[in-house]
Amino acid sequence: MDPDIQLMMFVYTHFYISVTVLSKPESKGYIELKSKNPYDKPKIDPMHLTVEKDVNRLADGVRKASEIFKRMKLSQNDADECRHLNTRSIDYWKCFVIERGGTFFHPVGTCKMGSEKSSSVVDNKLKVIGLQNVRVADASVFPDQISGNPVATILMIAERVVDFIKNDQ
């Protein structure tokens, strides 16, 4: 099973920061053209947390992060300040992530790679289907979100594109 929550904690002298990330959200957004004018900005709707399972998983991750912080050896004032957090209901945490949640902006799949022309934008050599001499080499070619930060995978895709271009494939 892939990990579904990434927890990052940063502890500084007088404060701490906790970031809880939903690694593989099921909520799917979209991007579409507003018009045929290439200067018009596209319409983008990430549709974050529109699947209840995502809300539940993220809320549970934030609740667990608050429990971890409660147990950490922070100053007495910080520990007292955080003591009440784990007594909050899961409904509280659901509301919290919906109202305060954000994203790390790792969108994928807008130029899906594959051989099925009806749903793919690029082929397995990362060439844009129907165009010549145009390739895409970023996270948009991922068919699905990966469980973790995408930078290493993006670098691998870029390296493959370099090989394809060198070999003129």
UniProtKB/TrEMBL annotation:
Domain Glucose-methanol-choline oxidoreductase C-terminal: residue ranges: 25-158
Domain of life: Eukaryota
Pfam families noted in UniProt: GMC_oxred_C
GO molecular function list: flavin adenine dinucleotide binding; oxidoreductase activity, acting on CH-OH group of donors
The family this protein is said to belong to: Belongs to the GMC oxidoreductase family.
Record's protein name: Glucose dehydrogenase-like [FAD: quinone]
